[in-house]
């Protein structure tokens, strides 16, 4: 499946905005939005896409590919291209599951059961992050045999932190983390500035920096 990464596109087309959440973009463009309503979100995203096209967006720069899970020959092809282990691929698949069930801003009982089923189907991932975090959270919810809305809300919060630890205030993303003696790989873009700036900050805190380069 091919799709357009509208978040990365928006960062390029509207570099002056404070963030690139759908409601922020819609407020700026005055696009009607009933946030977290699937129909409204879809229509607003389509109007956002058209506005970016009118502003000269090169669509080809933001096309991404997603291969549906469950097709073993395609999965093996992905492994050979990206050199991911089966374990790493499964952990990425888990993040996709978390993204899917949190997309509407909440998690209901059926979505929790879907997530629980995925966890039960992958016991080989025990001992890995974020698998263990999700497993423990679900176990806590089911401990008394009663699933309350408050518990589902907490599960949603945990899942969002796992998907985007920096943007959602995960404790592991706070500046108080001890970086001394840690090996850090830098790749991609950073919201606080250049790669050199990030490297400088981490080096000051005692981290050893590894730069990931594309050949």
What does this structure look like?
The structure is a single chain. By secondary structure, the protein is mostly helical. The chain folds into three domains: 63 residues, no CATH class; 90 residues, no CATH class; 41 residues, no CATH class. The protein is built from nine helices and four strands. The strands form two sheets. It has a two-stranded antiparallel ribbon. Helix 5 runs antiparallel to helix 6. The longest helix has 17 residues. It starts with a strand and ends with a strand. The relative contact order is 0.07. About 9% of the residues have low confidence.
Provide a brief overview of the structure.
The protein is mainly alpha-helical and 215 residues long.
């Amino acid at each position: 499946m091919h799709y357009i990464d509208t978040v990365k596109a928006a960062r390029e087309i509207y570099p002056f905005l404070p963030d690139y959440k759908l409601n922020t973009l819609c407020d700026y463009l005055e696009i009607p939005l009933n946030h977290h309503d699937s129909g409204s979100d879809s229509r607003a995203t389509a109007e956002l896409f058209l506005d970016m096209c009118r502003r000269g967006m090169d669509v080809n720069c933001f096309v991404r590919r997603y291969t549906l899970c469950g097709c073993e020959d395609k999965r093996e092809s992905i492994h050979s291209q990206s050199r991911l282990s089966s374990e790493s691929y499964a952990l990425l698949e888990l993040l996709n599951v978390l993204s899917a069930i949190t997309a509407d801003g909440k998690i209901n009982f059926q979505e929790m059961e879907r997530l629980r089923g995925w966890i039960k189907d992958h016991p080989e991932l025990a001992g890995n992050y974020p698998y263990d975090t999700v497993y423990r959270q679900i176990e806590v919810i089911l401990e008394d045999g009663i699933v309350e809305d408050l518990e589902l809300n907490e599960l949603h919060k945990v899942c969002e932190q796992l998907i985007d630890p920096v943007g959602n205030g995960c404790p592991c993303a706070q500046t108080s983390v001890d970086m001394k003696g840690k090996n850090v790989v830098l790749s991609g873009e950073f919201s606080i500035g250049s790669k050199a700036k990030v490297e400088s900050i981490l080096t000051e805190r005692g981290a050893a920096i590894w730069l990931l380069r594309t050949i």
